[in-house]
Specification:
Rossmann fold; 32% helix; Saccharopine dehydrogenase NADP binding domain-containing protein; NAD(P)-bd_dom_sf; Sacchrp_dh_NADP-bd
Length: 259
């Protein structure tokens, strides 16, 4: 089996490459990165055959498609801003696909099915877990008025191109996917809207959270039909009453606080 790892020499991509190389499930690993030198340095960590480095600019579509010939899996570890480009490549090449973070559209999901490939998006810290918990809670409750999903992240201050892309996107005035569902409609939110104080477990404690763009809120109503058509106790009828506020607080904690 052959796997192509796009962005395979990046901060996260290099760890994905190492995991796949140690796992041994693939006969051939291709580490494709814009920085070919860095990719070669990473590949040099492994003495065995079956892993090679390739310099690739994703704007060269023909070169990217040629690289995917004979591949079984395309692992996308590039910046999320390249998501549309990469999943379109996987669909055209008919190669199974996975990525770290993305917001696939219904049209892209249909195109993947029509191409006969499996496409798994968002293999991040908690891939889909929040929405599974929402569905479980919804099935146990008699009525649902609101759903709020909040999380806090711990990370050291280590600037990377991917992190910069993410921050610029999340805080942009033109971000169309930052918001929440209310009364059956997606409502856009401005940066720093939705401020709430949430108490997390120690040692994090109370943190102020804000609406951020994330598939959790947009996909919540698809995860559970009860969230999509929650019953309103006041009206006594069925209506889409979901206010799924997907919010996040980013916290930097010294490593000593976690020892």
């Amino acid at each position: 089996m052959k796997a192509v790892i796009l962005g395979g020499a990046g901060e996260v991509g290099s760890e994905v490459t190492r995991d796949l190389a140690r796992d041994g499930a693939f006969d051939e690993l291709v580490v494709a990165d814009l920085d070919e030198g860095r990719a070669r340095t990473l590949v040099d960590e492994f003495d065995g055959a079956g892993i090679r480095a390739v310099g690739l600019d994703l704007h060269d579509r023909e070169a990217a498609l040629a690289l995917l010939e004979g591949a079984d899996v395309l692992m996308n570890c590039t910046s999320f801003v390249l998501f549309d480009t990469v999943i379109d490549l996987a669909i055209e090449a008919r190669v199974d696909y996975a990525d770290l973070i993305s917001e696939p559209t219904d049209a892209q999901a249909r195109a993947a099915r029509e191409a006969g490939i499996t496409a798994i998006s968002g293999l991040g810290a908690t891939p889909g877990l929040s929405n599974v918990l929402v569905r479980h809670a919804a099935e146990e409750l008699e009525e649902i008025a609101e759903v709020h999903i909040s999380w806090v992240s711990f990370r050291t201050i280590a600037p990377t191109p991917g992190l910069l892309d993410t921050i610029l996107w999340e805080t942009s005035e033109n971000c169309e996917t930052r918001g929440f569902f209310q009364n059956g409609r997606f409502e856009r939110a401005a940066f720093l809207d939705g401020s709430r104080l949430v108490t997390f477990a120690d040692p994090v404690g109370p943190q102020r959270v804000y609406y951020l763009p994330h598939p959790r809120s947009r996909r919540c109503r698809e995860t559970s039909r009860r969230c999509a058509t929650a019953r309103s106790a006041e009206a006594g009828g069925r209506r889409s009453w979901t206010t799924c506020g997907c919010s996040a607080a980013m916290a930097c904690w010294p490593r000593t606080a976690w020892r």
